[in-house]
Amino acid sequence: MCIGGFNEFAATKQAIDKVMNALKDDEATTIGVYGMGGVGKTTMVKYVGAQAQKSRLFNQVIMAVVSQNPDLIQIQETFAEMLDFKLEEKTEIGRAIKLKEKIMRGTGILIILDDIWKRIEFSRIGIPNHNELLRCNSKVLLTTRRSSVCQIMESHAKIRLNILSKEDSWSLFVKEARKSFDKSSNFYDVAREVVRECAGLPIALIAVARALRDEALDGWKEAARRLQVSQPPNPEDEGDVFKCIKLSYDYLKYDDSKSCFLLCCLFPEDYDIPIEYLLMYGIGKGMFQDSNMLEARATTYLVVKALKDSSLLLDARAEGCTASGSW
Ligand SMILES: Nc1ncnc2c1ncn2[C@@H]1O[C@H](COP(=O)(O)OP(=O)(O)O)[C@@H](O)[C@H]1O
Ligand SMILES: [Mg+2]
User: What is the residue range of the signal peptide feature (predicted)?
Assistant: First the structure.
């Protein structure tokens, strides 16, 4: 099933059902979802949040990204904005107190904390503790790559989001590559090989399918070869995502797109990057040598669109911005 670009893969459905059950459990106030980078945690909890609000399980859903280097003030700001009030206090602790008061005055709020890497004190942000959450019928839904973080954060339910099955991987890849891959075609075996290398990760399947969409058979064979031999620079890294994102970058057609992507990597993960900044940095880097300002701006917007189409960049929350992914 596909609703507005969201696919309910078998693995996704299994995890969603478990999350929904936990959200209905009166005793559970913190629910942890874990799984590899790029497996679909953020996409899934956004969908769950929307469903939970639509079905009136919660009155309101608020969400903030925590990421590897949490900016607590920014997280508080995001929550305050979503709850439609202003935090005037300067200090983290002062803001935390106000935020908690606001959450506890409401009822039935689902608080989503996306991409947690290490223990983070709810009280420092302004999230009520277990007993307080029980009192205001509110819950926390968190996502993380590490199952140990679910324990550290004292989650009452710990739900794993698995990689896609072979069948789901294949159908997502075929859809994104916009090809039919007839069994008798020369592309079939090489496409199967490429899909295997994507290891059931939606982000890898989408990035690689889009990169290869318009390539001839030789381009596909070369991609399969590169994916097979690719070694992540750091063995600790999740190599499958790395090699697929690298392939997607390598297959970008224009140097401007590559330069623009590298400029985006200078920004923190999950950051709304103003496209005008990319234009300025691009000029500073010596891009757009033969263009006037109007042409340079138009090129920057086109390049950003191409990078979003390749899934190397994401849509931002703010107008005129793009967002860097967190892989
Ligand atoms: N259920 C899904 N349906 C459609 N696309 C998905 C789904 N899950 C993940 N994706 C795609 O994969 C990419 C990575 O997913 P994301 O939720 O960011 O992974 P994670 O948060 O686990 O790193 C997303 O940008 C989205 O395009
Ligand atoms: Mg995520």
Answer: none
